UniProtKB/TrEMBL annotation:
One of its GO terms (biological process) is transmembrane transport. PANTHER family: C4-DICARBOXYLATE-BINDING PROTEIN DCTB (PTHR33376:SF7), PTHR33376. It comes from the Bacteria. CDD domains: PBP2_TRAP_SBP_like_1. Residues 1-23 form the signal peptide. It comes from Zoogloea dura. The keyword Nucleotide-binding does not apply. Keywords: Signal, Transport. SUPFAM superfamilies: Periplasmic binding protein-like II (SSF53850). The lineage of its organism: Bacteria, Pseudomonadati, Pseudomonadota, Betaproteobacteria, Rhodocyclales. This is TRAP transporter substrate-binding protein. Belongs to the bacterial solute-binding protein 7 family. The keyword Plastid does not apply. One of its GO terms (cellular component) is outer membrane-bounded periplasmic space.
């Protein structure tokens, strides 16, 4: 009888020990866009790969659409350790004090994804991610979204058509200057508030890649959209550094592999998701989509180019030049 009690107790202790050994490491991954976007799909892909590769040792909980936190709050939550991973857009790191990310916001600095990848997949991009470490953040990868279009309730053919318009932007000083360069009035606002602000006329228009415009139904409250491709919007996938560094080495390696796989996936689907969204916007019949001619596009470029020089003091002239060198951008050749 006594022996049975002892055996039972030992079994109970063993059960508790193995249960706690098997309790998964939970990663809360928060973001602000719809699930059906390049970032939304890539974060779900990361969840799948991370759980597969770690054989369930890690459980990833993805919270889309600002369900957990809005733009500014999510960065605070990451630093406090309330969430472990995020993928904020590159335009949202300025308020954190890492202004170099705003180099990606310079109008027309990248002509296409291949130019962009020379930075995001090369040493310049890696050196920018490194700047997050003193903030308690580790930069894991860049995920693509796409090139932005302007939208409003009136046609946009020339930069002058944006004059005096209140245009919602992300929290980036470069974007503020971009809007001012065409005579617009920049309004910084969290992504989750944009639809309502457009609907109620708090702002007149905005800029975003088509995947964001379409999945947030912004096109339903904007009569005109012009495919200006005037700037890039993409993401840095980041983690709380203390959490990341504290992971068992094998698990961290598996998560790094999962991140590699999901980055390849994100960058593969980004353009097709944006193309599909543009088709969706056209088909909705709610927004008139205009594709500017080469000359019309050049007028936007010329109006916005002074932003590069104006922002040298904030972002760093050397950084801007190093991007020009990688991509072959030559402001004198416009
Ligand atoms: C925005 O605020 O417009 C974007 O940064 C949203 C996003 O994460 O794509």
């Amino acid at each position: 009888m006594k022996l049975r009690t002892v055996l039972f107790s030992l079994a109970a202790i063993g059960f508790c020990a193995s249960a706690s050994a098997q309790a998964p490491i939970v990663i809360k991954f928060s973001h602000v866009v719809a699930a059906d976007t390049p970032k939304g799909k890539a974060s779900e892909y990361f969840k799948k790969r991370a759980e597969e590769l770690t054989k369930g040792k890690v459980k990833v909980e993805v919270y889309a659409n600002s369900a957990l936190y809005k733009d500014k709050e999510e960065l605070e939550a990451l630093q406090l350790g309330a969430v472990q991973m995020l993928a904020p857009s590159l335009a949202k790191f300025g308020p954190l004090g890492v202004k170099e990310f705003e180099v990606f916001d310079l109008p027309y600095i990248f002509d296409d994804y291949s130019e962009l990848h020379r930075i995001t997949q090369g040493p310049v991009g890696a050196s920018i991610l490194k700047k997050l470490e003193p903030k308690g953040i580790v930069g894991l990868a860049y995920w693509d979204n796409g090139f932005k279009s302007f939208s409003a309730n009136t046609p946009i053919r020339t930069p002058a058509d944006l004059k005096g318009k209140k245009l919602r932007i992300q929290s980036s000083k470069v974007l503020e200057e971009e809007i001012r360069s065409v005579g617009g009035l920049p309004q910084v606002m969290a992504f989750s508030e944009v639809y309502q602000a457009l609907q109620t006329g708090v702002v007149d228009g905005t800029e975003n890649p088509h995947s964001n415009t379409f999945t947030q139904k912004m096109h339903e409250v904007q009569k005109h959209l012009t495919v200006t491709d005037h700037g890039y919007l993409g993401y840095a996938v980041i983690a709380n550094k203390k959490f990341w560094d504290g992971l068992p080495a094998d698990v961290r390696g598996q998560l790094e592999q999962a991140m590699k796989d999901s980055t390849a996936y994100a960058n593969k689907i980004a353009q097709e998701e944006n193309d599909k969204s543009l088709e969706g916007i056209k088909k909705s019949g709610k927004t008139q989509v205009y594709v500017p001619t080469k000359e019309e596009k050049l007028a936007f470029k010329k109006a916005m180019l002074p932003v590069h020089q104006k922002m040298e003091g904030r972002i760093g002239k050397d950084l801007i030049q190093s991007i020009y060198k990688e991509t072959g951008f030559d402001p004198a050749k416009l």
